[in-house]
Amino acid sequence: VKHLLGIKYLQKSDLDLIFETADHFKEVLSRSIKKVPSLRDITIANIFFENSTRTRLSFELAEKRLSADVINFSAGQSSVRKGETLIDTVNNILSMKVDMVVLRHPNAGAGIFLSNHVSASIVNAGDGAHEHPTQALLDAYSIRERLGGVGGRKVVIVGDILHSRVALSNIFALQMLGAEVKVCGPKTLMPKYVESLGVQVEYNLRKALEWCDVANMLRIQNERMDMSYFPTLREYTKQYGIDRVLLDSLDKEIVIMHPGPINRGVEITSDVADSDQSIILNQVENGVAIRMAVIYLLASKIK
Ligand code: CP
């Protein structure tokens, strides 16, 4: 496999290999070794057409930890604003002898499109409401780390499923690893196709939380929706937000996840997000090891 375009193009053996490789890099980093010389002859361009904090910084850090040469591109400060196309932008960057492109783009399928037009290895860092494969990998890896495995675990993904690339990639990854997955959120934010993926829909948050071992709380993707068909934020929080009172009323302690950025007080309160039940910052930490593993494994195909 030369590209990472989505979880749906992978197999369980690929996920197992990525996790084993991430285990190795995590162990190396835990010994305060800041850099390994693995990718000294590789140049990577991080090309971001959408805002990002976690994904962009952890890709850059992962690349630097592997000793790759790194260049960063933000559409907002580039000649895209003068009308340059995606293909022209990337071809110009590739002519500087770039081996791998990490691409975030608002359009679903942007990475797939690019992989058909350029010779570099493409890593999808989020394409519209389609997939965010490295997020799903680090999410599943974090569940594996906290609970000792993913197979047989019950995971509910809560919130704006309709516009979420995190939800779709998580569904693919978690099912591949043998977890049971439910989704929970308002009807207006639930895609019609979701049940065809083998996922059960639960509209009642309490019932979903009583069922699960892990709740992955998603943000409302304001930037991808027409707010006229959405419940108000106050209604949303009342029905689909989690707080300490709700969690303490369950008869077990579930693991709380969030891909970030968090809207504190909307989908999750601070006392939950910052509690021992939450593995939100573990997810961010694991993002570096997972992205090191992905880049290392893909680079072995282009060397
Ligand atoms: N989880 C995630 O993709 O965060 P960023 O948008 O900050 O990269």
Automatic annotation (TrEMBL):
<feature type="binding site">
    <location>
        <position position="54"/>
    </location>
    <ligand>
        <name>carbamoyl phosphate</name>
    </ligand>
</feature>
<comment type="subunit">
    <text>Heterododecamer (2C3:3R2) of six catalytic PyrB chains organized as two trimers (C3), and six regulatory PyrI chains organized as three dimers (R2).</text>
</comment>
<keyword id="KW-0808">Transferase</keyword>
<comment type="function">
    <text>Catalyzes the condensation of carbamoyl phosphate and aspartate to form carbamoyl aspartate and inorganic phosphate, the committed step in the de novo pyrimidine nucleotide biosynthesis pathway.</text>
</comment>
<comment type="pathway">
    <text>Pyrimidine metabolism; UMP biosynthesis via de novo pathway; (S)-dihydroorotate from bicarbonate: step 2/3.</text>
</comment>
<dbReference type="InterPro" id="IPR006130">
    <property type="entry name" value="Asp/Orn_carbamoylTrfase"/>
</dbReference>
<dbReference type="InterPro" id="IPR006132">
    <property type="entry name" value="Asp/Orn_carbamoyltranf_P-bd"/>
</dbReference>
<feature type="binding site">
    <location>
        <position position="260"/>
    </location>
    <ligand>
        <name>carbamoyl phosphate</name>
    </ligand>
</feature>
<comment type="similarity">
    <text>Belongs to the aspartate/ornithine carbamoyltransferase superfamily. ATCase family.</text>
</comment>
<feature type="binding site">
    <location>
        <position position="132"/>
    </location>
    <ligand>
        <name>carbamoyl phosphate</name>
    </ligand>
</feature>
<feature type="binding site">
    <location>
        <position position="55"/>
    </location>
    <ligand>
        <name>carbamoyl phosphate</name>
    </ligand>
</feature>
<protein>
    <recommendedName>
        <fullName>Aspartate carbamoyltransferase</fullName>
        <ecNumber>2.1.3.2</ecNumber>
    </recommendedName>
</protein>
<feature type="binding site">
    <location>
        <position position="261"/>
    </location>
    <ligand>
        <name>carbamoyl phosphate</name>
    </ligand>
</feature>
<feature type="binding site">
    <location>
        <position position="104"/>
    </location>
    <ligand>
        <name>carbamoyl phosphate</name>
    </ligand>
</feature>
<dbReference type="Pfam" id="PF00185">
    <property type="entry name" value="OTCace"/>
</dbReference>
<feature type="binding site">
    <location>
        <position position="82"/>
    </location>
    <ligand>
        <name>L-aspartate</name>
    </ligand>
</feature>
<dbReference type="InterPro" id="IPR002082">
    <property type="entry name" value="Asp_carbamoyltransf"/>
</dbReference>
<dbReference type="GO" id="GO:0004070">
    <property type="term" value="F:aspartate carbamoyltransferase activity"/>
</dbReference>
<dbReference type="InterPro" id="IPR036901">
    <property type="entry name" value="Asp/Orn_carbamoylTrfase_sf"/>
</dbReference>
<feature type="domain" description="Aspartate/ornithine carbamoyltransferase carbamoyl-P binding">
    <location>
        <begin position="2"/>
        <end position="145"/>
    </location>
</feature>
<feature type="domain" description="Aspartate/ornithine carbamoyltransferase Asp/Orn-binding">
    <location>
        <begin position="152"/>
        <end position="297"/>
    </location>
</feature>
<dbReference type="Pfam" id="PF02729">
    <property type="entry name" value="OTCace_N"/>
</dbReference>
<feature type="binding site">
    <location>
        <position position="219"/>
    </location>
    <ligand>
        <name>L-aspartate</name>
    </ligand>
</feature>
<dbReference type="InterPro" id="IPR006131">
    <property type="entry name" value="Asp_carbamoyltransf_Asp/Orn-bd"/>
</dbReference>
<keyword id="KW-0665">Pyrimidine biosynthesis</keyword>
<feature type="binding site">
    <location>
        <position position="165"/>
    </location>
    <ligand>
        <name>L-aspartate</name>
    </ligand>
</feature>
<feature type="binding site">
    <location>
        <position position="135"/>
    </location>
    <ligand>
        <name>carbamoyl phosphate</name>
    </ligand>
</feature>
